[in-house]
Amino acid sequence: MRAVAFDIFGGELDVRELPDPSPAPHGAVIRVEATGLCRSDWHGWQGHDPDISVLPHVPGHELAGVVEVVGSDVRGWRAGARVTVPFVCACGTCPSCTTGDHQICERQTQPGFTHWGSFAEYVAIDHADVNLIDVPEDMAFSTAAGLGCRFATAFRAVAQVGEVRPGEWVAVHGCGGVGLSAVMIATAAGARVVAIDVSGEALHLAELAGATHFVNGGDGDAAAQVRELTRGGAHVSIDALGSAQTCAASVESLRRKGRHVQVGLLPGGATPVPMDRVIGQELRLLGSHGMAAHAYPPMLEMIRGGILHPDQLVTRTIGLAEAGKALAAIGSVPGVTMIDPQS
User: Fold this and answer.
1) Which of 57, 90, 203, 293 stands 20 to 30 A from 51 (CA)?
2) 323 contact partners, CB below 8 Å, separation of at least 6
3) In whole angstroms, what is the distance from residue 279 CA to residue 285 CA?
4) Helices (H) and strands (E) in the chain — how many of each?
5) In this predicted model, what pLDDT tens digit does every residue of 12-62 receive, in sequence order?
């Protein structure tokens, strides 16, 4: 198969011929029709993820496609099914999974991290009966691929972890794919959304997604501007980028008793958090890590019902030959970039 791979962390990302994957007895191999370009893949390429320990490595974890073959123990799926997957592939049997929390599975696998990913013509997925999600015939693969990481992650962060309610102020720090998804979902929940980014183009996309107030993070104290716009601070603030600066700014954007949701991955090392503010104002600091496959139906219903429009967040589609350069320059093009490995 053709795939994008690297031999050293931070090194060249090139297209090469690699062996086709084979399914585990409980797994499946998917022919990838679309895969998203995500900052998490950039972190993996840079060596920030301890799950990537064997090189060469193929990145990519946000995908949709067609089942090519299933393992001998798979009961619910057959070749030819249109599917997507969450980026956290659960085992289905550990204590976390048995309580429904597949997104924090204790034996989770992640394509693009624990094994070769979806910047390729084919990818292997573990525990197919637990992790595969049916893609409706009328949904484009490029739309479905974006659900597996960014959109589903944002959906759970906003609706389930952040518990956003109508009329609340929500601040979204970083308007890349996750942030724009969070803006759209929070708006659909009836919240008033403040979008924060250093890019004017990204803020324009946030406006199209439903944000009504905007802060350019390069113009002074972003948190102070959020507190002024919201007359005291946001009820919920989401760090959708993942940096020491955006994490701290998100916490400092909150009003008393506010909820900070950390979605963006942070590089290793110390992350300064204003804990005096957390204590003095009884803030809640919450982590959000994807969304289990069994939790997708409400989100899919909102998409099919025209309430949510993840397809509007895709701003370009490229082929495998362009994927390496695009990953190295992640963040330079606003919106969501999709890769078509079959082109």
Assistant:
1) 293
2) 4, 13, 15, 37, 119, 339
3) 11
4) 12, 15
5) 999 999 999 999 999 999 999 999 999 999 999 999 999 999 999 999 999
Residue 49, C-beta contacts closer than 8 angstroms, at least 6 positions apart:
40, 43, 113
DSSP 8-state symbol, 51: T
Domains of the chain (ranges plus CATH)? 2-150+291-340 (3.90.180.10), 163-287 (3.40.50.720)
Per-residue pLDDT reduced to its tens digit, 117-173: 999 999 999 999 999 999 999 999 999 999 988 999 999 999 999 999 999 999 999
Reading the block at residue 322, the tokens are 């362009």
Edge-to-edge strands, sheet with 254-262: 213-216, 192-197, 169-173, 234-239, 254-262, 284-287
Q: 28-36 and 122-125 as β-strands: parallel, antiparallel, unpaired?
A: antiparallel
Sequence-distant (6+) residues with CB within 8 A of 28 are 67, 68, 69, 70, 71, 74, 77, 124, 125, 128, 132
Task: Give residue 7's identity as a one-letter amino acid code.
Answer: D
Whole-number Cα distances in Å, 87 to 63, 93, 309, 329, 330: 8, 18, 20, 22, 19
Helices 177-188, 200-209: axis angle to 10 degrees equals 30
Closest-CA residue to 212 (of 237, 198, 233, 194): 194
Give the span between the Cα atoms of 154 and 149, in whole angstroms. Answer: 8
Omega of the bond leading into 56 within 30 degrees of 0 (cis): yes
Cβ atoms of residues 22 and 9 within 8 Å: no
CA–CA dist 138, 105 (Å, integer): 31
Q: How many Å apart are CA 59 and CA 324, to the nearest integer?
A: 10
